[in-house]
Q: What sequence folds into this?
């Protein structure tokens, strides 16, 4: 009767610096805040602190824009140095607009604005920006293994970023790196309440978990970079990658 | 220290029939399952039970397809009677494919496949399908006012449906009707951790809440049509509509 899921936001993670051990920071914050880590917990981490720990922070003053970056900057009205970084983080440009949109497919295969390059919640001027971690699945795995080492517990880890969406207003938090969890809950071939068999329903549970975590993380002064989810069923998968969430281009209906 | 959000899934909502009072069913289930309803709770309701209560259930055998429906059915390979219903529920067709995709803008302004017409989790044959409630904001408001009447508590209500997404694999649960809650958390003009002012960040918190609820609701035999969210900050808004989440066509980058 009355199933429960608990979302717990850690509030004492210190300012993260290059070289910091995120797994250890999580375990220590849990101890401080009296939160137990248990087998089957899902630990959701905003990519911003991972980028900081991995040194994926760039000062725009150190960037020299290429000719192509200068052209795109002129067309979109964006800072040419920022455009240069976006190009470096991208496999291809999907869409440009005079209103300042640069939609790309990132080196990780995510279709998003500005290749995820972002200047919020980083110390320093607006010229200090964060890139998405180089391999967010690997970052998630590292955190997961470190937590296992420190606590003996087997958790899943999801690394997230917040993006806008085609056709829908407002941004939501999505999964960009995962470890130990399938990104999907697959109902295909399973019966519903009345024995009808689902033909197409696959739920992007990793994205739903990311969105749930955002309710606590917030974008501003909330200072909650980590959310622990307890009581949520998920399919364990050692080989899963958040890249499975990126729809292959040949399946795009909207271009 | 350690902020918490709790998601509680009600497991004793009975089979819903036309004319049923969803607000009352929620309050009774809460009593049975020892769940208190408090001011500020957010009650998330899958649209399927609302559609059942409002009699938005259709037997395809009673539908005569129009000439246009027959043409589209031939092109997409879909049941012509289903196509007829989809057309009736739509303002316009956004995209058709030979692979069976019918993407429309519904009468509510939502861009989605099949106008949300769906045959899962309804008693009877596969020919019995559910439509989205006619006015999901109004349905949400009715449930909210009834809960206020029965308990004296002021809650927010969100009605949800599960949709696929452009460019991203897997479906997620989204808000299609709301009452008492702004669909957005707006950070524009607010400072981040370091005093940087957000220029564009608006979070679609109603969609994130819908996704969070889906973690408990599931799609199959979970039998959890209602999730109560406790401890989540939201902006109260008497006039808000889920229609604010539909991006106006002139802003579409992907078409």
A:
């Amino acid at each position: 009767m009355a199933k429960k899921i608990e979302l717990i936001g850690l509030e004492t993670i210190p300012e993260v610096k290059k070289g910091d051990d995120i797994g250890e920071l999580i375990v220590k914050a849990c101890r401080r805040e009296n939160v137990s880590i248990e087998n089957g917990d899902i630990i959701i981490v905003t990519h911003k602190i991972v980028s900081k720990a991995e040194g994926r922070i760039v000062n725009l003053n150190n960037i020299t824009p290429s000719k192509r970056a200068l052209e795109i900057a002129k067309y979109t009205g964006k800072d040419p140095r920022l455009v240069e970084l976006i190009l470096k983080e991208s496999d291809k440009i999907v869409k440009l607009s005079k209103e300042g949109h640069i939609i790309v497919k990132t080196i990780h295969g995510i279709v998003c604005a500005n290749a995820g390059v972002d200047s919020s919640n980083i110390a320093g001027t607006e010229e200090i920006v964060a890139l998405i971690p180089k391999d967010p699945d690997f970052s998630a795995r590292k955190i997961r293994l470190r937590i296992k080492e420190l606590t003996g517990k087997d958790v899943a880890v999801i690394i997230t970023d917040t993006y806008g969406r085609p056709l829908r207003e407002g941004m939501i938090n999505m999964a960009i790196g995962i470890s130990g969890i399938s990104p999907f809950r697959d109902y295909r071939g399973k019966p519903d309440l009345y024995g009808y068999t689902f033909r197409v329903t696959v739920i992007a549970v990793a994205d739903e978990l990311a969105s749930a975590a955002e309710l606590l993380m917030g974008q501003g002064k909330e200072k909650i970079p980590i959310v622990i989810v307890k009581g949520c069923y998920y399919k364990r998968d050692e080989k899963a990658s958040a890249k499975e969430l990126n729809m292959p281009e040949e399946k795009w209906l909207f271009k």
